[in-house]
Amino acid sequence: MAFSWSLAKALDLDEPIPQAVALRAAVDPIFLRDLIEERPANLATSEVAARAVETSLPKWAPAPTLGLLGAATMALTRWALIGFRPVPEAQVQKRKAACQACPELRPPGQHLIHRLVGAGQSQVCGLCACAIDKKANLPTETCPAPSDDPAVNRWGEPRDPAAPWAGR
């Protein structure tokens, strides 16, 4: 919320920037530049601000650290709910191999959360921003990338995130 107010002040607006616009400005420097250049008097009529709502974040834009922290917390909670059951090593290796071959793979994480969970040297998924070395070890997690078969993800596992562990 503080960023929203700071950005509003920089744009000489009397109201905070809407969350979608602030999020986009926080992770997309090109969008932020365009917003500052436009200097809209009213965000409701701003062509640049409308882009934040109409389009998703670019694939190259890092997810905000707060969002990553929330996603990591939820992943660990799901894992705890099934008793911290491990993924068989063969399945972990299959998942990691699929990630290594994926065009969405990115260099090691630059976010604070990656360093906090000891994943600072792990390559990162460009779709979900997860550290692949960590995510591949969690039976409750799934790959967000589609495969040629709409029923399975790139890991070759069911696309329904609950399917691998629900009811166990």
Short description:
The chain has helices at 2-10, 19-27, 29-38, 47-54, 65-81, 89-100, 112-116, 132-135; strands at 105-106, 124-125. With 168 residues, the chain is mostly helical.
Report on the structure:
The chain is mostly helical and 168 residues long. It has two domains: 2-54, no CATH class; 62-168, no CATH class. The protein is built from eight helices and two strands, in the order ααααααβαβα. The chain has helices spanning 2-10, 19-27, 29-38, 47-54, 65-81, 89-100, 112-116, 132-135, and strands at 105-106, 124-125. A two-stranded antiparallel ribbon has the order 1-2. Helix 2 (19-27) crosses helix 3 (29-38) and helix 2 (19-27) packs across helix 4 (47-54). The longest helix is centred in the middle third of the chain and has 17 residues, at 65-81. The termini are far apart.
Provide the succession of SSEs.
HHHHHHEHEH
Rg, Cα atoms, Å: 19 Å
Report, as a whole number of angstroms, the end-to-end distance. Answer: 40 Å
Oligomer: single chain
Q: What count of domains describes the coordinates?
A: 2
Which stretches are poorly predicted, pLDDT < 50 over at least 5 residues?
A: 163-168
Helix and strand topology:
Elements: H1 2-10, H2 19-27, H3 29-38, H4 47-54, H5 65-81, H6 89-100, E1 105-106, H7 112-116, E2 124-125, H8 132-135
Antiparallel strand pairs: 1-2
Helix pairs in contact: 2-3, 2-4
